[in-house]
Specification:
Layout (H helix, E strand, L loop, with lengths): L5 E6 L5 H13 L3 E6 L9 H8 L3 E2 L13 H6 L3 E7 L1 H9 L5 H8 L4 E5 L3 H5 L1 H12 L3 E2 L3 E4 L5 E5 L3 H11 L10 E6 L4 E2 L5 E2 L6 H12 L3 E6 L10 E5 L3 H10 L5 E4 L6 E3 L19 E3 L3 H6 L7 E8 L3 H12 L3 E6 L11 E2 L1 E5 L2 E4 L3 E2 H16 L4
Parallel strand pairs: 1-2, 1-4, 2-3, 4-5, 5-6, 9-12, 9-14, 12-13, 14-17, 17-18
Antiparallel strand pairs: 7-8, 10-11, 15-16, 18-20, 19-22, 20-21
Helix pairs in contact: 1-2, 1-8, 4-7, 9-13
The protein binds cytidine-5'-monophosphate.
The site of cytidine-5'-monophosphate has 15 residues, from helix 11 and strand 17.
């Protein structure tokens, strides 16, 4: 249900705009208030009169409308809502969003909003598959924009392919998900570690590893999407903060441990970080000089094991999940690791050269718990994250 929720619906100019009229009806049936912004091109497909009649609200279409004193300002329009939905989202508006353009009211609102944004793309299948659209999607996803669809099938121009806007009920379900109307982890606290750690040798150099943080960040976003109050403890990454999470940024393993413990108590902890096992024992305060002599010997000290510490902590989360990145004998090593670390589940993945797991978008995992091993098909890291978050929600609800 969406009772009392305020949806700002941006309709951009595609043939699928006719389905947005039904979307407005479906949203209102569920108790949502709907305000609509039409782009200039959208008005070629649907009229402000029909949109206004169905939404029972004033329709916004041109930026200059908002300069009149009695009108609501575009900043307020962008923020006086619980969610901004772009349906249909054309290739053009997605490109404008990725670029941060603000050439009309719709894109200005999108740039000015601090609310969650859901886009329902609709376009020709070749445009959808074009490198420009793929790159724009990736930028927008990294910034926390959510997507529903597009679907495959016959397109308006008679071609077959992926590009049809999702049906209104699917868009409604995605909005409900985004707003946490289906939030099995509401009231739960989650803690996620992600990314590599940097262990200084001197002020300039450090020891690190190839972890991108993609899987851990996706897990934090997925837990937050299910309603968990989520703290992400992140080593240095190039990723944007996942939507809806509190992010504590650290560099070293010791800092990661301190930040992690500061976020207790938690109901679930997922340790996805690739923590350096060792650190230079005595990092220099000055840059080591190459003085023609023998190369320096760097003595190493063992880092704290965050996963093992959490698993045996007096404030142990009721579910502790570790990761095992292995290059050989994956299941056997990961099974032994679960017992050694004292965690409940281990998510094992193969990171040998050629799998593309480190830094890539895909992952093939095996979830090992006391009952045995569950092997998942290869899938996107985002999808692994969503499935894992669901499994966590089931387990905390006592179902798994
Ligand atoms: O021992 P290994 O590094 O393979 O264990 C991997 C698991 O342990 C991951 O969940 C990782 O986040 C966690 N870990 C940790 N602190 C360490 C080393 C690993 O939390 N110092």
């Amino acid at each position: 249900m969406l009772a009392g929720k305020r949806v700002l619906l941006i309709i951009s100019g595609g043939i699928a705009a006719y389905k947005s009229l039904d979307l407005i009806r479906r949203l209102r049936e569920r108790g949502a208030e709907v305000r609509c912004v039409l782009t200039r091109a959208a008005k070629e497909f649907v009229t402000p009169l029909s949109v206004g009649t169905l939404s029972k609200s004033r329709v916004y279409d041109e930026l200059f409308d908002l300069t009149a004193e009695h009108e609501i300002g575009h900043i307020r329009l962008a923020r006086d809502c619980d969610v901004v939905v772009v349906a249909p989202a054309t290739a053009n508006i997605l490109a404008a969003m990725a670029q941060g353009l603000a050439g009309d009211l719709a894109t200005t609102v999108l740039l000015a909003t601090d609310r969650p944004v859901l886009a329902a793309p609709a376009m020709n299948h070749v445009m959808w598959a074009s490198p420009a659209t793929v790159a724009n999607l990736s930028v927008l996803r990294d910034r926390g924009v959510s997507f529903v669809g597009p679907e495959s099938g016959e397109l308006a121009e008679g071609e077959i392919g992926t590009g049809r806007m999702s049906e209104p009920l699917a868009i409604v379900a995605a909005i409900e998900n985004l707003l946490g109307a289906n939030a099995p982890l509401r009231g739960r606290r989650a803690l996620v570690t992600s990314g590599p750690t940097y262990e200084p040798i001197d002020p300039v150099r450090y020891i690190a590893n190839r972890s991108s943080g993609k899987q851990g960040h996706a897990i934090a976003a997925a837990l937050a999407a299910l309603g968990a109050e989520t703290t992400l403890v992140s080593g240095p990454t190039r990723l944007a903060d996942p939507a809806g999470c509190r992010v504590l940024r650290v560099e070293t393993a010791q800092q990661m441990l301190a930040a992690t413990l500061s976020a207790l108590p938690a109901d679930v902890a997922v340790c996805a970080a690739a923590v350096a096992d060792w650190r230079p024992a005595a990092p220099g305060n000055a840059k080591l000089k190459k003085d023609g002599g023998a190369p320096p010997q760097i003595a190493l000290a063992e880092n704290p094991d965050i996963l093992a510490t959490l698993s045996r902590h007096k404030q142990r989360p009721s579910l502790v999940v570790g990761f095992a990145a292995e290059t050989d004998d994956l299941i056997a090593h990961a099974t032994a690791k679960r017992l050694r670390k004292g965690c409940d589940w281990i998510v094992a993945n193969d990171v040998s050269t050629g799998t593309g797991t480190f830094g890539g978008d895909d992952n093939r995992v095996h979830v090992i718990d006391a009952a045995g091993t569950e092997s998942w098909d290869p899938m996107k890291k985002d999808e692994v994250a969503r499935r894992l978050a669901r499994r966590i929600a089931d387990r905390l609800a006592g179902a798994a």
